[in-house]
Amino acid sequence: MAQTQANVDAGEIAKFDEMAHRWWDPQGEYRPLHEINPLRLDYIESRVGALEGLQVLDVGCGGGLLSEGLARRGAHVTGIDLGENALDVARMHLFESGLEVDYQLRSAEDMAVAKPGQFDVVTCMEMLEHVPDPGSVLTACAQLLKPGGHLVVATLNRTPKAFALAIVGAEYVLRWLPRGTHEYARFIRPSEMEAWMRAADLRMRDLMGLHYDPLARRYHLGPGVDVNYLAHAVRD
């Protein structure tokens, strides 16, 4: 378990475990995730193709919001996280949804040792900005993929605009997220993301921005990655 201990922030795990019981409340702290989840799923399918029958690993699955969405679209899904409370919530919600997801208390690094080259698709959404070494997670994700497999990640760009909107706006003004949810220094520039991917033998294929329209009160995908963005890469 040495790799797990080396790349986990106990404070971050505790912070999200404290809110775990509210994962499936669409009007609670995780409301933004509920609202963007269909967009994330559509983006994954637009890059990967139909998910039916594919082996998919959701890294940092939390309470299972994306994992269940992937399973609903026909994928065979494994979800891993280091938050025990979040995983308990994810497992309990399967009784309500009737879906099948294999949830495990594991880090990406440990999973890569146990099941290298086993997955067609690996997703890692809104998680890289919460670990000490994002490059280590991306390397593990690459190792978990079959040759030609797909990695889809989502994170926040380290720009003044992202600080203003994602921290000042979302956490302090609008109070969509609890204060302290994000740490600006851990936001990831696309150039940094691409360098880590390249070092892990991943080839970045696409970058897509995730935007919020305050007038329409809805999110949409489009050009521009100066705040939230998704990235798609393929294992060479």
Automatic annotation (TrEMBL):
Q: Which organism is it from?
A: Ectothiorhodosinus mongolicus
Protein name according to UniProt? Ubiquinone biosynthesis O-methyltransferase
Catalysed reaction per UniProt? a 3-demethylubiquinol + S-adenosyl-L-methionine = a ubiquinol + S-adenosyl-L-homocysteine + H(+); a 3-(all-trans-polyprenyl)benzene-1,2-diol + S-adenosyl-L-methionine = a 2-methoxy-6-(all-trans-polyprenyl)phenol + S-adenosyl-L-homocysteine + H(+)
What is the purpose of this protein? O-methyltransferase that catalyzes the 2 O-methylation steps in the ubiquinone biosynthetic pathway.
Pathway as given in its UniProt record: Cofactor biosynthesis; ubiquinone biosynthesis
Can the keyword Ribosomal protein be found in this entry's annotation?
no
Any idea where the Methyltransferase type domain is? Answer: 57-153
Its keywords, alphabetically, are: Methyltransferase, S-adenosyl-L-methionine, Transferase, Ubiquinone, Ubiquinone biosynthesis
Cite the binding residues for S-adenosyl-L-methionine. Answer: R40, G60, D81, M125
Under the heading CDD domains, the entry gives: AdoMet_MTases
Q: Answer yes or no on keyword Methyltransferase.
A: yes
The terms under GO molecular function for this entry are: 2-polyprenyl-6-hydroxyphenol methylase activity; 3-demethylubiquinol 3-O-methyltransferase activity; polyprenyldihydroxybenzoate methyltransferase activity
What's one Pfam family the UniProt record gives for this protein? Methyltransf_11
The record's comment on protein family reads: Belongs to the methyltransferase superfamily. UbiG/COQ3 family.
The Enzyme Commission number assigned here is 2.1.1.222, 2.1.1.64
Q: Which GO BP terms sit in this record? A: methylation
In terms of superkingdom, the source organism counts as: Bacteria
Query: What gene does the UniProt entry assign to this protein?
Result: ubiG
